[in-house]
Task: inverse folding
């Protein structure tokens, strides 16, 4: 016999799964920054290039920073900063670093640097282990939905595509 807690958790999971991958159905009512940087740095100060080169999250250094798309970014080395400057669109997380599962469902949530995946040479962050597990169940479908939803989510700032610059 299931306990009340298990039934509630099961219902919650079914609801979340039922809401999964809803392209064109944006429920985000407040505008958000183009880049998720609530702690003052994009990716919470982690080096976005390291996900590709080291296959793990690596904290950036105050010695290697730059400004791009309205946010400050940290890197673990001058080499990583140079790689980012050469191709920021490749290394920056998708959807401004917000949770890929949330964006697929028409809203935003903070993206955790610890809940990440590289899919087709693109970096995706998720808010927590549950969101990532749900996102992992249909990565292609969630990516398609988020690709439709992200442009429809209102942004506070619309930074130019100017190249990254020193702070």
Result:
């Amino acid at each position: 016999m299931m306990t009340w807690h298990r039934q509630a958790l099961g219902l919650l999971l079914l609801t979340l799964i039922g809401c999964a991958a809803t392209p064109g159905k944006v429920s985000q009512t407040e505008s958000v920054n183009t880049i998720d940087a609530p702690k003052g740095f994009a990716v919470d100060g982690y080096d976005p290039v390291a996900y590709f080169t080291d296959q793990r999250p690596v904290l950036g250094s105050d010695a290697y920073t730059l400004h791009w798309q309205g946010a400050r970014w940290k890197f673990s080395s001058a080499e990583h900063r140079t790689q980012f400057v050469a191709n920021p669109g490749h290394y920056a997380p998708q959807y401004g670093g917000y949770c890929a599962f949330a964006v697929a469902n028409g809203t935003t949530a903070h993206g955790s640097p610890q809940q990440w995946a590289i899919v087709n040479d693109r970096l995706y962050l998720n808010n927590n282990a549950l969101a990532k597990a749900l996102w992992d169940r249909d990565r292609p479908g969630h990516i398609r939905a988020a690709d439709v939803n992200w442009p429809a989510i209102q942004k506070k700032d619309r930074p130019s595509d100017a190249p990254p610059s020193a702070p």
